[in-house]
C-alpha cells in the first residue's frame, strides 16, 4: 500500500496542483489531507472547489475551524479575507470534517495532536525561524493509547519523521502551500509505504510557480506573505 499525505495547503492552489501532479507520477492508492485547507490570501475559493471535488479523507485544521464556526479569532486579517469569499457550500464542507479519523485501522490522522488542532506534536513553536524538537517523553506521551502503526500530524509546516521505540511512525508531511523554515519555496508532502507489514515514510519537495503565487498575495493586499512564498525563509510570526 502507498499513501500520499498532504497538509496545510492554506489556499495555495498552484502549489496543490503541482503536488497532485507529483503524486500522480509516484502512483498511490490514496491521498489524505491533514487540514488547514483554505486559510491563505492566495486562491481560497479555487482551492476549496478543487479539494471538495477531490474529496480526500480529511481532518479539520485550526484555521478551518475558526472560519467554519465564525470564531472571534477568524476576524484576524487572513482568516477574515478567506471567510468573506467562501460560499456556503465551502463552509458546510469545513463543518463536516472530523477532528481525527483513521484509515483502515492502520493510519491515524490529526491536524496538531490527537487532542488539539492548535498544539504542535513534533516541533516546539517558532522563535524567529528556529524550531526545536521536543523531548522524547513529550512526543511519546501524545501517542498514548493510539494503537495505529502510523500517526500523522500537520500544523507546524515542518516535515518530520519519528519512529517511536515501539515501532510506530509519527509523521508530519510539512506544508503544501506555505514554507516557513526551509530556505526553499517548494511544496512538501509525504509518501507512506507498507511492505511486509512494515510502514516507512519519505518526504517530497516539489517546485511550482511560486512567483505567480507571490503575485496573488500581493494583489490580494498581503504583501508580507510574498517573502514566505518566494523564499521559504520567512518567520511564521505576523503572517496571520
TrEMBL record:
CDD domains reported for this sequence: MPP_superfamily
A cellular component term, taken from the record's GO annotations: cytoplasm
Domain Calcineurin-like phosphoesterase: 1-193
Domain of life of the organism encoding this protein: Bacteria
Record-linked Pfam families: Metallophos_2 (PF12850)
GO molecular-function terms, A-Z: phosphatase activity
Assigned protein family: Belongs to the metallophosphoesterase superfamily. YfcE family.
Protein name: Calcineurin-like phosphoesterase domain-containing protein
Species per Swiss-Prot/TrEMBL record: Devosia insulae DS-56
Amino acid at each position: 500500500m502507498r499513501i500520499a499525505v498532504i497538509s496545510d495547503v492554506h489556499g495555495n492552489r498552484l502549489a496543490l496542483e503541482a503536488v497532485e501532479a507529483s503524486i500522480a507520477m509516484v502512483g498511490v492508492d490514496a491521498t489524505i489531507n491533514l487540514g488547514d485547507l483554505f486559510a491563505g490570501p492566495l486562491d481560497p475559493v479555487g482551492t476549496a472547489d478543487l479539494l471538495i471535488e477531490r474529496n480526500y479523507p480529511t481532518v479539520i485544521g485550526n484555521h478551518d475551524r475558526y472560519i467554519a464556526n465564525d470564531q472571534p479569532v477568524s476576524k484576524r486579517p487572513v482568516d477574515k479575507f478567506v471567510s468573506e469569499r467562501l460560499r456556503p457550500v465551502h463552509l458546510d464542507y469545513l463543518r463536516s470534517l472530523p477532528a481525527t479519523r483513521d484509515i483502515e485501522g492502520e493510519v491515524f490522522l490529526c491536524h496538531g495532536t490527537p487532542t488539539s488542532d492548535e498544539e504542535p506534536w513534533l516541533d516546539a513553536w517558532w522563535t524567529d525561524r528556529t524550531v526545536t524538537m521536543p523531548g522524547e517523553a513529550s512526543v511519546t506521551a501524545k501517542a498514548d493509547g493510539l494503537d495505529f502503526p502510523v500517526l500523522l500530524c500537520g500544523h507546524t509546516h515542518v516535515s518530520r519523521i519519528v519512529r517511536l521505540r515501539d515501532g510506530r511512525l509519527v509523521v508530519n508531511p510539512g506544508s503544501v502551500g506555505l514554507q516557513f523554515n526551509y530556505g526553499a519555496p517548494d511544496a512538501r508532502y509525504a509518501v507512506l509505504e507498507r511492505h511486509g507489514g512494515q510502514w516507512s515514510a519519505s518526504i517530497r519537495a516539489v517546485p511550482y510557480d511560486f512567483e505567480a503565487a507571490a503575485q496573488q498575495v500581493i494583489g490580494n493586499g498581503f504583501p508580507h506573505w510574498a517573502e514566505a512564498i518566494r523564499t521559504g525563509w520567512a518567520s511564521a510570526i505576523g503572517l496571520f
